[in-house]
Amino acid sequence: MTKPAFSIIGCGTVGTCLADLLHRLGYPAAGLASRTRASAEKTAAVVGAGQVFDKVEDAALAGDMVFITTTDDAIGPVCQDISSKKGFKNGAVVLHCSGALSSELLASARDCGAYAGSMHPLQSFAAAKPGVNLFEGILVSVEGDAPARDMARQAAEDLGAMCAQVDTNSKMLYHAAAVAASNYLVALLNLAFELNQGAGIEPKESLAGLMPLIQGTLKNIEVQGIPNALTGPIARGDVGIVRRHVEEIRAKTPQMLALYQTLGAQTVDIALAKGSIDEKRADELKAVLK
Where in the numbering of this chain does the Putative oxidoreductase/dehydrogenase Rossmann-like domain appear (predicted)? Predict the structure, then answer.
């Protein structure tokens, strides 16, 4: 089956990576445009294909699948500008790669008879290099008009990614989940480091000492899932130990107490779901964690 020709509007790290990988998979590179011509020319050099255009609408018009890979703030205005100049083909698919924003940001493309969608790779592209497939094995979320979803899904699967459809009206929750799993994991580990520092263990030692525990927990989640991967004093219903934790934290690292209590209360609910504690013990634990 013939693969759709693609255009990239916004030749930064993500746009360049997509262009390089899609071209290697047999997708024809059509138009390239960016805020500066030099940026688009750099992408063309990496890909070894694609025509550089000075006008974004000309670059977009060359493609059957158009990726707007600008900053999030610029996606809507850029799409609107292209649409106002009839820069999308009738039947073309227009996609952005934002994790937080939905395809409705591209609604103006429909005025040209194009389809709007989003295709978000759950991946950091800070280490992107030509020829290195950062899509292999990752999750890519898609949403939007059905033809856009279908084309995005095919591209994602061709890139070796897993694909999931996200509710267009709940895209921000999907993004919040990614933030919780990545950014808030850093905050969680900082809590552990702060508590250990209060006990006399320096952060460098904490990292080395806790890493096997962290990796073991992640492996248990992968194999057993939540809630079955939960262990520890709350899973055992050990009210006395949890009470001692709260007392020690309040006395020695009080700035960490609110976070510990909030996470503890959530952990009680997980222990209940696991069935390792009953409602009475759950109420006792939550009382200690208030």
Answer: 7-121
Q: Enumerate residue ranges in the chain where pLDDT < 50.
A: none
H and E: helices and strands count for the chain: 11, 8
> Residue 126: what pLDDT?
79
**Beta strands 65-68 and 6-9: pairing type?**
parallel
Q: Which residues of the chain form CATH 3.40.50.720? A: 6-166
174-288 maps to CATH 2.160.20:
no
Estimate to the nearest angstrom the gap between the alpha carbon of 120 and the chain centroid. Answer: 7
**Start-end of CATH 1.10.1040 domains in the chain:** 174-288
Question: Which CATH topology does 6-166 take?
Answer: Rossmann fold (3.40.50)
What is the predicted pLDDT for the residue at 271?
98
DSSP assignment of 140-175: EEEEESHHHHHHHHHHHHHTT-EEEE--GGGHHHHH
The pLDDT score that the predictor gives to residue 45 is: 97
